[in-house]
Amino acid sequence: MKVIRHLPLVLLAALLLLGGCIKEERRGYEEGSKEGHGDIGLQRFTDIGGDFELIDQNNKPFKLSSLKGKAVILFFGYLTCPDVCPTTLMELKQLREDLGRDAERMQVLFVSVDPERDTPEKLKDYLTNFDPAFLGLTGTPEVIAKVAQQYKVAYSRREQRSSMGYTVDHSAASYLVDTKGELRYIFAFKTKIPFMVKGVKKVLEYPEA
């Protein structure tokens, strides 16, 4: 699966049309994130993020705003993703373990970019294998596209001549949302877990930071 890095949608669309090599935009990332050391400088985004409503893995309406008071890690992926998604979910499982008691004040959300195949029931079964506390979200293709646009997430269906039918190229970042529902940081794929722990703890301990 091809990983699409976080880019402005207009630029991303142009690169896709040109078939160009997509590079990672540095905005929202810290140089120390790959190494897992150094302080984390939280960001304030005026053009990315916001509340949304989807269907959760229990087939019930879900709003991001229902989690106010908790830190949130938001990730966009799909269940038959062969690499990025399972890797990220394993890392988020480790993140929860490393948070200790603070894990109770943090929620991982997995938003499917393949609503055609990822039913609520399948999301629940799949995510439980990683951590029963993870919550899967889906919706109509139109609603998923709207939420993805809010978070500047790119994804595109890629047809395959295999039993899989198709794969989905998608952004690989994870989004840190604070206790007020505001996006505060974008973690690049494979960011070191200790650095992510610092980010979650910071939004929990210093909500005004």
From TrEMBL:
Q: Offer an example of a GO molecular function term for this protein.
A: metal ion binding
Sorted alphabetically, the keyword list is: Copper, Disulfide bond, Metal-binding
Q: Where is the Thioredoxin domain?
A: 43-209
Record: residues binding Cu cation:
81, 85, 170
Q: Which cysteines are joined by disulfide bonds?
A: 81-85
Q: Which InterPro entries match?
A: SCO1/SenC (IPR003782), Thioredoxin-like_sf (IPR036249), Thioredoxin_domain (IPR013766)
SUPFAM superfamilies attached to this UniProt entry = Thioredoxin-like
Q: Its family? A: Belongs to the SCO1/2 family.
Put simply, this protein is called: Thioredoxin domain-containing protein
Q: Give the organism the record lists.
A: Candidatus Lambdaproteobacteria bacterium RIFOXYD2_FULL_50_16
